[in-house]
Write a structure and sequence with these properties.
It comes from Roseibium polysiphoniae. Pfam families: DUF2628. Keywords: Membrane, Transmembrane, Transmembrane helix. This is DUF2628 domain-containing protein. Helix 4 packs antiparallel against helix 5. By secondary structure, the protein is α+β, with helices and mostly antiparallel strands. It has 6 helices and 5 strands. The strands form 2 sheets. A 3-stranded antiparallel beta sheet has the order 2-1-3.
């Protein structure tokens, strides 16, 4: 199961009102981004995260210059570490950039993939807007019959011989 943050643009009125309004929602996954790990700068530019690009370039440049003074495999290790860290934080930085641009968080959606998460989110959103609430009652308590008596036989269990069967 993956978790997705559902982001709405600043001028969105009601996502349930029309399919066009619902199409404007963006589902940002809360997981490792392989694309951001492999092609970081392209991923940042694709998502138009200009402030993040400046920070990424500054951090990468500082680490690479420092690693160059150390020599050996340090520049490669530093580049891998930056890419790995960015892969873990890329979607969080994307959500942060969207919030700075006025987007708002509508909620969370869970699903095995984005399609299932969208279906679940819109189903819950539609049921909230129509006034019908899904079953919110707590589950029924487990009732155990009172006449069940545990029986102990004469079997050997892990080298122990248990006593005779008891009854009430």
């Amino acid at each position: 199961m993956s978790t997705f943050y559902v982001m709405a643009p600043p001028d969105l009125k009601d996502p349930v009102a029309s399919p066009h309004e619902a199409d404007r929602l963006v589902f940002v996954a809360d997981r490792f981004s392989w694309a951001a790990f492999v092609i970081s700068i392209v991923w940042i530019i694709w998502h138009r995260m200009w402030l993040v690009l400046l920070g990424y370039l500054a951090i990468t440049l500082a680490l690479e210059v420092t690693a160059a003074f150390v020599g050996g495999a340090a520049p490669a290790v530093a580049a891998f570490a930056v890419a790995l860290l960015f892969g873990f934080e890329a979607n969080g930085l994307r959500r942060w950039t969207m919030e700075r641009s006025g987007w708002r968080l509508l909620g969370l959606a869970c699903g095995s993939d984005q399609t299932e998460a969208e279906l679940r989110f819109f189903q819950s959103l539609q049921s909230k807007s129509s006034g019908s609430s899904p079953a919110t009652q707590p589950p029924a308590p487990i009732v155990r019959p009172s006449r069940v008596i545990p029986k102990i036989g004469t079997e050997t269990v892990v080298g122990l011989t248990l006593g005779q069967e008891t009854s009430r």
